[in-house]
Specification:
By secondary structure, the chain is mainly alpha-helical. It has seven helices and no strands. The chain is elongated and about 50 Å long.
Length: 110
């Protein structure tokens, strides 16, 4: 499997969508998406690659080469916190404020 296919599959799994949902999100049919993820390992046209990257919050360069665009933050170190971040995202601000204060206090002690 190509690096592009591996990265694309990994990123789609990371955002928690299945292939059909992701294809609908970017406006292509599932069969087209399957060709980018399957054994054919075909590359999408540039306009589709841009849609894919935008939907994933990534650069096309990263999807194609595996090298992160210089101005973009490397998110790999945050992947271990995905579940925690998902939980925090649904909390109201009045609950988040003290949580943020506690985390900041611990971080400053480090």
């Amino acid at each position: 499997m190509s690096g592009f296919s591996q990265r694309l599959r990994s990123e789609i799994e990371y955002i928690g969508l299945n292939r059909k949902e992701f294809a609908a999100k970017i406006g292509i049919n599932k069969r087209a998406l399957d060709t980018y993820l399957g054994p054919q390992q075909s590359m999408p046209p540039a306009d589709t690659a841009v849609k894919i990257a935008a939907a994933l919050g990534l650069s096309v360069e990263y999807l194609v080469t595996g090298k992160e665009y210089q101005q973009k933050t490397d998110i790999s170190k945050y992947l271990q916190f995905k579940d925690l971040l998902d939980d925090l995202a649904v909390l109201p601000e009045e609950t988040l404020t003290p949580i943020k204060a506690v985390v900041k206090a611990f971080a400053e002690k480090k």
